[in-house]
Amino acid sequence: MSKPTSASPAAGAPAAQRRRFLAGLAAGVIGTIVAVVPTIPGIAFLLHPLLKKKKAGAAEGDGYVKITTVEAIPKDGSPRAFPVQMDIQDAWNKYPDRQVGSVFLSRNEDGQLKCFSCVCPHLGCTINYEEKAKLYLCPCHASSFKLDGERENQIPPRSMDPLEVRVNEKNEVEVKYQTFRAGTSERKVVS
Ligand code: FES
Hints:
about 190 residues; alpha+beta; Rieske Iron-sulfur Protein; 2 domains; 3-stranded antiparallel beta sheet; 2 helices; disordered N terminus; binds FE2/S2 (inorganic) cluster; Rieske_2Fe-2S
C-alpha cells in the first residue's frame, strides 16, 4: 500500500509566484481606475463648452436674423442701413446682442424687399448710401454701385453682395446674414 506523498517545497513555488503576480496585477488595475475615474468629470467639464457650441450652432436653425420691421424701411425704394445684431458665443462665453455687421434694406412700391451687405467687395470697408447721387459709395477706394447693387465702376471686383430676406408672421424683416470673401470676382461665402 502506497503512502500519500506530501507536496515538496519546490512544487509550491510556482503557485506562490502566480498568486503574487495576480495580486500585483489586481493592485495595478485598481490603482489605474482610482487614478483615472476622478479625472473624467474634469475632462467632461473642459469639453462641455465645445460640445455645447456645436449644439447651439445647430439650434440656430436656418441662419435668418431679425433686423427691423417692414414699416421702418422707406417705401420709395431708397435704401437704409440697419445693424445686424446677434448673440455671439465662443467656447466658454456668450455675448448677447452684439453687432456683427450691417445691411442695406430697401422696399419698392410693390412691397418687394431687397437686401445687400454693407461690406464692400473690394477690400471690406463699409459702404455708404449717397442719397443725392442715388449711388452706394465706398469711402476707401471710391467703389460705387447702382441702386440694384451692380458695380458702377471697375474698382470693385464684383457687384454688391445680395442677402436673402423674408418677412415673418410679426411683420418683422429677417435677413440671412452672410459674409463673403473680399477682393475676388467670384462670390464666396466666408461665414
Ligand atoms: S474697400 Fe471699398 S473701395 Fe476699396
